[in-house]
Amino acid sequence: MSAPARLRVDLAERGYDVIVGEGLLADLARHLPVPDHAVRAALVTNATVDGLYGDAVRTGLAAAGLEVHTIIVPDAEDAKSLAVAETGYHRLAAIPLRRDDLVVALGGGVVGDLAGFLAATWHRGVAVAQVPTTLLAQVDAAVGGKTGINLPEGKNLVGAFHQPRVVLADTRTLATLPERERRAGLGEAVKYGFIDDPVVLERLEAEPVAAVAGDPAVLTEVVRRGVAVKARIVSGDEREGGERMLLNYGHTIGHVIEALTGYTRYRHGEAVALGMVAAARLGERLGISQKGLAARTVALLEGLGLPTGGVRLDPGAVAEVVARDKKARGHGLRFILCVRPGEATVVDHVPAGAVEEVCASLA
Ligand code: NAD
Ligand code: GLY
After folding, report:
1. Beta-bridge mates of residue 7
2. Residues of the chain whose pLDDT is less than 50?
3. What pLDDT score does 332 carry?
4. Is 37 in a helix, a strand, or coil?
5. Which atom of ligand 2 is nearest to the CA of 140?
6. How far is it, in rounded angstroms, from Cα 89 to Cα 147?
7. For residue 307, how many C-alpha atoms fall within 13 Å in the half-sphere facing its CB?
8. Which of 188, 258, 270, 284 is catalytic?
9. Max alpha carbon distance in the chain (Å)?
């Protein structure tokens, strides 16, 4: 077992460390930067994660000198709602959690987004520590400061950028994740290989079975490399004005698939896997991506047990979503495409017909 890695998100006074390692929760007090004058911690989690890791985190927070109050939220995407946020605010008021105190988010991306949003808005912003326990949250959602909740009209429509004080990614927690969640997290991790660090691809191609089974050495390296990419990109482009857009590789068609299948058929990382297959085919078709990229993408994702086809999208519905996107953005259809493994680029004015064809190829 190697020493924890410390990756810096370099945002001047809002900068912070992402610490990645096996067994961090057992030593939480040592890794937690407690805000000056903090007295209380509101630990936001769900019943599943609380049962597994709540006691370890409460022990660590108490050892750091904090009075701990646990807030349990539902274990479902529905927890990212105005109603659950309102209940959360009432709980924070009852503690009472003051301006100098700390919110701790313990769980997957749902808990992280909700607790981050509560922290962003409570007393106009209090400190939050992100303690992600899913692969998707460790490699992506907990880093970078995007927080938010959903409305019936759409996902993540209400939110705020609110950077955490620290992210503590204990990769040992990934051992208890359901296998499907680990696979979905690997889908999001693969993205970093195509946009920046091909070693992620090589590692997952060499050891797909170990990765899916939750081998701590493989997953720790994948999380560390993915976070290093995200930390570097967010440090240079916090608000997604430029390079941060590259983190959306595979997401344009991934989002279309999630929307057209009612957000129930696919986990987010599974939809991103399908989106990366489509993006690689689109890139090759437009002469932007290296030949063979799509075949490598499909082989890698299949090795990880992720979907690479089998989704029939109504062409009319795809055209409608695509047209909406075009109208909303004013620069034609925008896609993130991979030039070669490790290099991605933003491409505007992509022909709608080509997009519809690659979507059809996923059937
Ligand atoms: P999730 O939070 O729903 O977690 C998946 C399931 O795993 C849940 O049932 C959870 O209780 C369980 N779980 C969590 N940790 C566990 C563990 N260690 N052992 C056993 N079970 C565990 O799903 P997710 O995929 O982590 O997150 C999805 C959410 O993340 C979405 O709402 C998405 O919008 C958001 N997201 C946010 C960002 C961002 O930048 N803020 C980026 C990507 C996704
Ligand atoms: N998940 C993409 C981002 O944080 O920008």
Report:
1. 18
2. none
3. 81
4. coil
5. 1
6. 16
7. 22
8. 188
9. 60
- Measured in whole angstroms, the distance separating CA 304 from the mean position of its chain's CA atoms is 18
Task: Report which bound ligand comes closest to the CA of 148.
Answer: 1
Using the mean position of ligand 1's atoms as its centre, give its distance from the Cα of residue 135 in Å: 8
Task: Kindly tell me the burial class for residue 12, based on how many C-beta atoms sit within 10 Å of its own C-beta (0-12, 13-18, 19 or more).
Answer: exposed
Residue nearest to atom 39 of ligand 1 (CA): 141
Q: How far is the CA of 190 from the centre of ligand 2 (A)?
A: 14
Kindly identify the ligand whose nearest atom is closest to the C-alpha of 243. Answer: 2
Q: Which of 18, 113, 244 should be mutated for ligand 2, with most atoms under 8 A from CB?
A: 244
Determine the pLDDT at residue 314. Answer: 84
Q: Could you give the CA distance from residue 272 to residue 146 in angstroms, rounded to a whole number?
A: 18
In the structure, which protein residues have their CB atom closer than 6 angstroms to any atom of ligand 2?
Answer: 140, 144, 146, 240, 244, 247
Two tokens at 59? 């022990």
Atom 17 (ligand 1) nearest CA? 177
Q: What's the confidence (pLDDT) of residue 328?
A: 56
Distance CA 279, CA 262 (A): 21
Q: Other C-beta atoms within 10 Å of 33: how many?
A: 14
Residue 244: is it exposed, middle or buried by C-beta count within 10 angstroms (0-12/13-18/19+)? middle
304 token code pair: 């990880």
Query: Is residue 251 flagged as an active site residue?
Result: yes
**Would you call 69 a catalytic residue per the annotation?**
no
Residue 259: count of CB within 10 angstroms of its CB: 14
pLDDT at res. 31: 97
CA pair distance 102, 168, nearest whole angstrom? 15
Site to probe by mutation for ligand 2, drawn from 146, 238, 251, 336 as the one with most ligand atoms within 8 Å of Cβ, is 146
Per residue in 325-337, pLDDT (tens digit) is 655 566 688 999 9
Strand order in the sheet with 5-9: 5-9, 16-21, 166-170, 127-132, 102-107, 40-46, 67-73
Q: Which ligand is nearest to the CA of 191?
A: 2
Please write the tens of the pLDDT for every residue from 51-99.
999 999 999 999 999 999 999 999 999 999 999 999 999 999 999 999 9
Interstrand relation of 154-161 and 146-151 (parallel, antiparallel or unpaired):
antiparallel
Separation between Cα atoms, residue 298 and residue 307, nearest integer Å: 9
Active-site residue 240, yes or no?
yes
